Amino acid sequence: MKASEIRKMSAKDLDKKLLELKDELFKLRFQQAINQLDNPMRINAVKKDIARIKTVQRDIELHGANS
User: Fold this and answer.
1) Is there a contact between 50 and 22 (Cβ–Cβ < 8 Å)?
2) Each residue of 26-41: pLDDT tens digit?
3) 50 burial class (0-12, 13-18, 19+ CB within 10 angstroms)?
4) CA-CA distance, 16 to 30, in Å (whole number)?
5) Its pTM surpasses 0.90
6) Residue 60 class from Cβ within 10 Å (0-12 exposed, 13-18 middle, 19+ buried)?
7) Fold of domain 3-63
8) Nearest-CA neighbor of 42 among 55, 28, 53, 23?
9) Under 8 Å between Cβ of 7 and 63
10) How confident is the model over 5-15, as a mean pLDDT?
11) Residue 65 scores a pLDDT above 90
12) Average pLDDT over residues 47-59
């Protein structure tokens, strides 16, 4: 997911997507713990997507929706 795609989302959509990604990360970590993870790089990708969403949320919080 690109930052430009994230910036186009509404605050409600960002919250929803963040919850989905956190749930996915939990499931991926669980799969990793029991050695059933197919793509270990997916964990890094999900972490980065979570960070991007949090960055955009913080930017909106500081500068408003106009930035």
Assistant:
1) yes
2) 999 999 999 999 999 9
3) middle
4) 21
5) no
6) middle
7) Helix Hairpins (1.10.287)
8) 28
9) no
10) 92
11) no
12) 96
Structure tokens at 12: 């409600």
- Share above pLDDT 90 across residues of the chain, in percent, rounded to a whole number: 81
Tokens 């919850």 -> residue: 19
3-state secondary structure 9-63: CCHHHHHHHHHHHHHHHHHHHHHHHCCCCCCCHHHHHHHHHHHHHHHHHHHHHHH
**56 with 7: CB under 8 angstroms?**
yes
The yes-or-no verdict on residue 53 having pLDDT over 80 is yes
43 with 21: CB under 8 angstroms? no
**Domain assignments of the chain as residue spans, ordered by start:** 3-63
